[in-house]
């Protein structure tokens, strides 16, 4: 394939497609159990609090897996780390079908969650190696849009498979796709553009940048085994502001990822077939939101060269809008008014993903995977509490209360973004 020397190749977009499919598989595996929850509860006689603990087992272990997973991704490079991560969690997806009690469901979900923990941090490191600063919001937005598309197709696909072969078959089919992706990724991906034969000089110059003499920068392209400055990382306030914002976001999103199908069936009284369609709508809206948020933050940055403003101008209004939409979702008597409110709320929530996941690259540099692991690890610990609190409250008939709690948490997240987070301040002491 001969490319004109003055025309950029497009290898980085094929890399984005490959990573985005991983995000799709990741999310589909993660939420399949929430779609199947009513059937699992019925077969095993689990109450809502027990189901809440099963949901949260994944999230808690996923949170614990973030920091070691991100560190491994930084040390080994994405090409070696990601295929193993995806193959192992896909194996535990398959083993979910063999669970036979609450304890066994919790055990397999713990193993599944921990093994998946390194996926997003390692993928973030891959993006930091392959994309310039002005494309980071876009690539994060697109990747997370694929994840939501994966979640959106799960309800109809899972119900279809379940009707033919039963609910256990869903886990077998999904697990097989993950293992197939692992093989493909290892075969075609390379850690840096410099190693990829389809990247020409023009595209490499676009990714790395040039100095005044026309020399392509090379430092960002090196896959090292960087020694993490843990003391600096964990004592820098900016790191904890980023964590706090992600704690708030995760607390809110895990309702959509765990209890939404059950909420639609039991509280809003939609039929199971309607749920298969309606549970997809917030995720489809989230897919659009991810893309919009990622594109918008990059466009503002290109136009203003103000990275802090470019991240804040998307995240703050989106979090406030999502908080406001929780109120009609809780208080409305109409099925469809509540549904529309939830669809809109997830759209605005997902607008935050592009700016939020750009932060580890913005403030972490060559430690982007580790920084992403810290952010997502602590964030998902809050996410682990969300399904338990929801299950505890609704088991007592308090279906509206969780939405008021979530709205309050989102306002705190918006305030953190508005007044505390600084995307141009390193958390490792290195130039970013």
What does this structure look like?
By secondary structure, the protein is mainly alpha-helical. The protein contains 17 helices and no strands. Helix 2 runs antiparallel to helix 3 and helix 3 (78-96) runs antiparallel to helix 7 (167-188). The longest helix has 34 residues, at 11-44. The relative contact order is 0.16.
In a few lines, what is going on in this structure?
The chain has 432 residues and is mainly alpha-helical.
Q: What is the N-to-C succession of helices and strands?
A: HHHHHHHHHHHHHHHHH
The pLDDT mean sits at 86
Q: Can you count the beta strands?
A: 0
Q: Low-confidence spans: pLDDT under 50, at least 5 residues?
A: none
DSSP helix fraction: over 70%
- Alpha-carbon Rg, integer: 21 Å
Q: What spatial form do the alpha-carbon principal axes imply?
A: globular
Structural class: mainly alpha
The major pleated sheet works out as:
none
User: What is the CA–CA distance across the termini?
Assistant: 35 Å
| Percent range for β-strand residues | under 5%
DSSP helical segment count: 17
Structural descriptors:
432 residues; 0% strand; mainly alpha; 17 helices
Write the layout of secondary structure elements.
Elements: H1 11-44, H2 48-76, H3 78-96, H4 102-116, H5 119-130, H6 136-165, H7 167-188, H8 201-208, H9 230-235, H10 237-266, H11 272-278, H12 281-304, H13 307-331, H14 335-351, H15 353-364, H16 368-394, H17 401-419
Helix pairs in contact: 1-2, 1-5, 1-6, 1-7, 1-10, 2-3, 2-4, 2-5, 2-16, 3-4, 3-5, 3-7, 5-15, 5-16, 6-7, 6-12, 6-15, 10-16, 10-17, 12-13, 12-14, 13-14, 13-15, 13-17, 15-16
């Amino acid at each position: 394939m001969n490319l004109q020397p003055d025309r950029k190749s497009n290898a980085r977009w094929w890399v984005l497609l490959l990573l985005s499919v991983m995000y799709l598989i990741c999310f589909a595996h993660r939420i399949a159990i929430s779609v199947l929850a009513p059937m699992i509860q019925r077969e095993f006689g689990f109450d809502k609090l027990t189901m809440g603990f099963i949901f949260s087992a994944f999230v808690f272990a996923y949170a614990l897996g973030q920091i070691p997973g991100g560190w491994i991704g930084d040390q080994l490079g994405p090409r070696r780390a990601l295929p193993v991560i995806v193959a192992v969690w896909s194996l535990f997806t398959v083993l979910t079908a063999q669970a036979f009690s609450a304890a066994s469901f919790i055990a397999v979900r713990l193993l599944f969650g921990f093994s998946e923990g390194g996926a997003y941090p390692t993928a973030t490191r891959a993006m930091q190696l392959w994309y310039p600063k002005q494309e980071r919001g876009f690539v994060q937005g697109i990747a997370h849009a694929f994840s939501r598309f994966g979640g959106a197709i799960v309800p109809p696909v899972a119900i279809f498979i379940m009707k033919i072969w039963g609910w256990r078959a869903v886990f077998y089919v999904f697990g097989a796709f993950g293992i197939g992706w692992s093989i493909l990724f290892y075969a075609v991906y390379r850690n840096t553009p410099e190693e990829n034969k389809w990247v020409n000089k023009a595209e490499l110059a676009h990714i790395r940048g040039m100095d005044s003499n026309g020399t392509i920068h090379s430092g960002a392209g090196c896959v090292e085994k960087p020694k993490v400055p843990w003391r600096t990382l964990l004592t820098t306030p900016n790191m904890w502001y980023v964590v706090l914002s992600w704690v708030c976001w995760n607390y809110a999103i895990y309702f959509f990822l765990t209890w939404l199908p059950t909420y639609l069936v039991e509280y809003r009284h939609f039929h199971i077939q309607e749920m298969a369609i309606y549970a997809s709508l917030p995720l489809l809206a989230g897919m659009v939101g991810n893309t919009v948020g990622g594109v918008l933050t990059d466009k503002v940055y290109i136009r203003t060269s103000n990275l802090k403003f470019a991240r804040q101008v998307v995240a703050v209004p989106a979090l406030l809008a999502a908080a406001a939409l929780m109120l009609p979702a809780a208080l409305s008597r109409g099925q469809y008014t509540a549904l529309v409110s939830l669809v809109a709320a997830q759209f605005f929530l997902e607008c935050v993903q592009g700016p939020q996941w750009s932060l580890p690259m913005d403030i972490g540099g060559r430690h982007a995977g580790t920084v992403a692991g810290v952010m997502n690890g602590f964030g998902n610990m809050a996410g682990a509490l969300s399904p338990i609190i929801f299950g505890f409250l609704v088991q007592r008939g308090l279906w509206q209360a969780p939405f008021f709690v979530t709205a309050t948490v989102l306002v705190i997240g918006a305030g953190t973004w508005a007044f505390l987070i600084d995307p141009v301040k390193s958390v490792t002491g290195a130039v970013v």
